[in-house]
Hints:
Blueprint: H1 2-9, E1 13-15, H2 20-39, H3 45-53, E2 55-57, H4 61-65, H5 86-91, H6 93-107, H7 116-123, E3 136-137, E4 144-145
Parallel strand pairs: 1-2
Antiparallel strand pairs: 3-4
Amino acid sequence: MGAQIAMQSALHITLHDLSPALCEKGMAGNRKQLERRVGKGQMTKEQMEAALTRVRLEPDLERAARDTDFVIEAIVERLDLKRPFKLGDLSGLAIGYNARLEVFSRTGNEKDRPPRELERRVKRGDLGRKTGRGFYDYSTDPPTPILD
Length: 148
């Protein structure tokens, strides 16, 4: 599924998986899908090759998320009890906040309202790793939790 998302996005995408072999397998699947489109006349071979060159393989999640505006996780990872909000910080807290806010605006259900802690961070500009602060302070190594 992650490989499909990367292919569909066809932007400057980093494909992260558990190992280099799984990254390569994902890219092989992408190539096969795009070759089908070429075969159907939906795109040219040049467009296919250009799309494939925009996907960068990176087995290290920390490196994959650097300088990234958007992170999609297509598989549930094992919970990291030391850094439980890692994914939110990596993908950007405004993404989760705005998604929750949109659902809440449609349902009006209080269970769908974004948590206050998340709203507070987003409103003050602490958007996660890309701004250096979110649920963690990234100016330290390792990142330290921000408790407020």
